[in-house]
Amino acid sequence: MSSYANASMSSAPPLVPLAEPFEAARIGEFVRSATFEATHPSDAELDALAAAVPPGTRIYVSAVPARAPEEQIAIAQRLNARGFEPVPHLAARNFADVGALDHYLARMVDEAGVTRLLIIGGDRDTPAGHFHHAIEVIESGLPQSHGIREIGIAGFPEGHPRVAQAELDRALAAKLEAAAATGLAVHIVTQFAFSAAPVLGFIARLRDDGFDLPIRIGLAGPASVATLLRFAAICGVAVSARALARNAGLAKHLFGANAPDAIIRALAGARAGLGDVAPHFFTFGGLAKTARWAAAVAAGHIALDRAGGFRVEPP
Q1: Within 13 Å, how many C-alpha atoms sit on residue 267's CB side?
Q2: CA 144 to CA 179: how far, in whole Å?
Q3: 108-137, pLDDT tens digit by residue?
Q4: Taking Cα atoms as reference points, which of 91, 160, 88, 154 lies closest to residue 122?
Q5: In sequence order, what are the residues at sequence separation of 6 or more whose Cβ sits closer than 8 angstroms to the Cβ of residue 75?
Q6: Taking a C-beta distance cutoff of 8 angstroms, is the pair 135, 175 a contact?
Q7: pLDDT score at 232
Q8: SS3 (DSSP) at 268
Q9: pLDDT given at position 238
Q10: CA atoms of 193 and 231, how far apart (whole Å)
């Protein structure tokens, strides 16, 4: 059986005959613009990535508090050598001082060809130095001094487990203002979600407030339900996690993993009214698996179902 075949055919929802090629094409077009998240990809995963997605695809490189910056730089170098665009997470709290941040930026730009960053506060409870928040890095001017002209900042469609919504709104507006004042273009990368409703609401609020910047919509790539629920609990996406738990039995896909087909179908259907949006895959089930799944969807190897999602089919 092909690796794209459904792992649980008996419990799968009935398919919609592919008399709806327009919708299938719309889904494929949406996924073709995807970016991906990587933490510590192996050479085998990079081989699979190169076989599945186009050169120049943005691959965001996670910043892990316990990992030395040199490891993240090395990953960015490997991605650049393979023809991808590395976009490192710059976690403000990981840097002891201005000198350490300046050295990191110089190496990322000079040795890994980095032109964009995702600037975040970071998960470290106790900052390594005087940087506490992303806005402090933006206002420092250091990224700009090394030739960085665009940054990503984080968005939270379902809120943050430790930060009030009003504070999130204020912080987002302040970062956008600081970036504009220092000549940086901005895009938003959202926390992952399993349900379209909070994402659509988040985007609508941004557009209503006059923010027309690009948005990369966080989605969890194919992974086991247990894995997804564990990360959902850590990241505070409770509303989406409940939706996932209710519908997990309907969504068995590649290698028996839960795939983000329903939310992708909903977002692709609403895309015309959302502005500049694209999927951004968190690869909890593995970079290679996510890249292969996304490539199959982008190529149109899908069958729509009556449950509001789709299944990846053999080519």
Answers
A1: 33
A2: 10
A3: 999 999 999 999 998 788 888 989 999 999
A4: 91
A5: 38, 40, 41, 61, 86
A6: yes
A7: 57
A8: helix
A9: 52
A10: 11
Domains of the chain: 1-32+199-209+216-315 (no CATH), 54-190 (3.20.20.220)
pLDDT tens digit sequence for 253-289: 444 568 899 999 999 999 999 999 999 999 986 899 9
Nearest to 176 by CA among 162, 188, 191: 188
Angle at 265 between CA 153 and CA 60, to 5 degrees: 30
Rounded Cα–Cα distance for residues 60 and 38 (Å): 6
19 Cβ contact list (under 8 Å, min separation 6): none
pTM metric for this prediction: 0.87
Alpha-carbon distance of 253 to 68, in angstroms, equals: 36
Closest CA to 278 of 208, 198, 219: 219
Which pLDDT band, with edges at 50, 70 and 90, does 252 fall under? very low
